[in-house]
Amino acid sequence: MKFYNHALVALLAVLFSGVDSNLEVITNPNATAYRGGNITLPCRFSGVPEAVYWHKHNRTGAPDDQATLVVSKVKDQDVYQPVDPRYDITTDHSLVISDVQIEDETTYSCEVSVPNAPTGKNYTALTVIALAKKLYPVVRGCMVTERAKPGKCVYEVRADTENFVLMCRVEQVKPVVSLSWTNQYNDERTINRLVTGPDEDGLFNATSELRVSRTEIENGDSFVCKATGESVKGTSALVVTVKYPSGLSSGGKAGIAIFVLIVIAVIGIGIGFFLWRRKKEQEKKEAKREAEMKDPEMEPLSPLQSKFEVLAEKIKNYKPGSFSRLEKKKGRIWPEVTRLGVFGVTNAGKSSLVRSLNFSLTGEFIDVEVATSESIGGLTTIPKPFCLTDHLTVVDNRGLKDLDVSGINGIMDQIREY
Asked: Residue 93 class from Cβ within 10 Å (0-12 exposed, 13-18 middle, 19+ buried)?
């Protein structure tokens, strides 16, 4: 009975102290990552850890004594990365591997330490897949045009070739893929297969050769190279269409003929337009030549004539101005038409001057009218106005027998009147 009591007390002490003699650490047994990508390996357990350690074993399934610490997190301390900064640990104690490489493929172990309990540990085996750069096979010498859809190409056979080889390849992958050839009717063809690798980077190359006789196929027939494996994400295929050199088809010949006709038509239109324009220019030259023959050649103006031309232009463009502020204050305004008066004794040439001025500016010729009397002194007649421009009128005061030069003020009154 005494021994029983001691055992019960020891069991209760263990329970109240929080000790868990069976710390369980849970990880994924297996994980897969793609080369160049990222992968997260979880590590789950109960309780608050004192420390979490992630180890990388030197090969898949290697024991603990062949493992290297890659990252750790001790309570109240910074994350420790002794090997490579690509390895990191998250807040939930998972291992993150960035930019996964082939050499990252191995076993990883998560070791957890909690207070007053044995250390717990579990393992994850990581597999790394290296995808092909192109997820469909490649055939040497097969041309992929811009219009062709992915997974299709054209293989042109030389005119002097009777037998040829279609070489299908998927390179630098892991794991290796399986290659096969079928014709357009999905009949499998006998082929030669070759696999090389792994190379120093752990990658494989796969090649499949299909030998074809020109006599067994028609121009435009096709073959399909199919790749199967994880490194092409299951199954992918390349359709190879075989083309023989040949003459133009009827459609191609018709197209060339139409193109030639269009070119000829364009050239004809261009020549016709050139001849028409040349003819028009010749007609203009003939018309100009005839006009020059009909009209006498005009002599250049003399300096005096040029001066008169300038003065005539100024007279034609004349417009009444405005009075000064003082004149406006007196109530004077400019009339719409300015009238000029020509005064002089009989036979002084007043009428000739006025009519010459009128002819210069208007082109209208009026015969001279002479006002005289038996005493030569002439006889004052009614003044005759001549409209030289829209704003300028000159008045011919003919005769003026009673002209009194001394009475200049009276003459000015007559000028203002007109």
From this structure: middle
